[in-house]
Amino acid sequence: MTHLSEAPLVPVQPVNAGMTQIAIARQSILDAKQNVFAYELFDRSRSFDNHSASSDAEMLFNLLSHIEYEALIEEKILFINCTLDSLAGGHLELIEPGRVVLEIPTLDDHVADEIEARVETLMDIRRRGFRLSFSHTVTSKQYATWLPQADFIKLDLSQLQTEQLGAITQLALKNPGLRLVAEKIETVDQYELAVSHGIQLFQGYWFAKPILVTGQTLRPSQANIIQLINLIRQQASTLEIEELLKRDPTLSFNLLRFINSAGFGLERQISSFRHAIMLMGLSKLFRWAALLLTTSPNGGVPSAVGSMAVVRGRLMELLAAEALPADEADNAFVVGIFSLLDTLLGIPMAKALESITLPESVTQTLLHRSGPLASLLELTEACETANEEAFERCANLLQLNNHQVNMAHLHALAWAETLTTESESSLTFNN
Predict the structure, then answer these.
(1) What is the pTM of this model?
(2) Residues 89 and 114 grouped into a single domain
(3) β-pairing, 152-156 with 131-135?
(4) Number of domains forming the structure of the chain
(5) Using CA atoms, how far apart are residues 337 and 374, in angstroms rounded to an integer?
(6) Residue ranges in 156-265 assigned as alpha helix (H)
(7) What is the pLDDT of residues 111-154, one digit of tens each?
(8) 288 within domain boundaries
(9) CA 40 from chain center: how many Å?
(10) Final residue of a structural domain among 188, 215, 242
């Protein structure tokens, strides 16, 4: 049996003010034919004894914001560890429950009253569509009210004796729909023991060691996130929220990346900010923004690169309205604001675009500088660099005169400049 390589499981520190390094370990859960049934995910960005409800929420958010998210899960069922307290967290509203199994710990002291107090929460989580997994402890008498809520029970073969294994497998037969997972399988003897008891799901080093997937998520400044939260609390219009997203490329990138992730459960890709806002609704958008706030760096105004991306987006939007069909204006803005995505993320543009699906005309422009928006992007860059030759050539191609371009550039600069003032004034929550 070939083992997958295992990277050092060490905490990863942020590399700069706008970037957050994340490390998520993935281990396969195999079926009887040794095909991947699911993946269990572990947060390796923090120590083993430093998990809490807030860290559960952060890992889920990082997972949905991860550049390598799709490759990480491969459309499989996900087993995610969580604390009991995190079951009441709003972050679970942000993920499609049908693909998630929540691994629930039993209580350290096994106090009967506390066990009973948790039953309603477990039932509510299952009613919302999540499946639950427990350790073999849930088969003990103290947890009789928890057992009906179990979809999976994990059996630690490093702890259980053969007699215990037999008793638990017999119990499982009396509960239709309950599936057993033999975990921590490290030898062929353990595997054969599990098979002999009718167990059909397996996990352990004998099959594959965890793979550590690291990456970076781009976080906007807290000032802009707070401004977004303020707008939501004030029941602002979709147009007002869209305007803010258009002024911060990191906010807009995170939103489109999140809403198009497999965890959100949509069947088609979304590339319009307005459409994303309408699909999420203010309640879910608020939860998303609140989680983003907790995982973002302190800071004030956008970076110089971010500001330049905002100007590009607005300038291309204004020029597209003059030179191209009306339906290209939104795409032009997206091209402009994402044209510096490689710089913002510190990775090649092709790699950055793997994490988000955009219209073909946008992708062709960003990757190959081809298509109807390519000349518009080149003209925008010529405005920045005062490249007169490129300016004249592109303006003529687009049938734009100097006055139109210069006025649009001034409007774009002024529009982006207001972000500084608005961001600074949003640092205190409005009542």
Answers:
(1) 0.57
(2) yes
(3) parallel
(4) 2
(5) 14
(6) 162-173, 188-196, 222-233, 238-247, 249-259
(7) 899 999 999 999 999 998 999 999 999 999 999 999 999 999 99
(8) yes
(9) 16
(10) 215
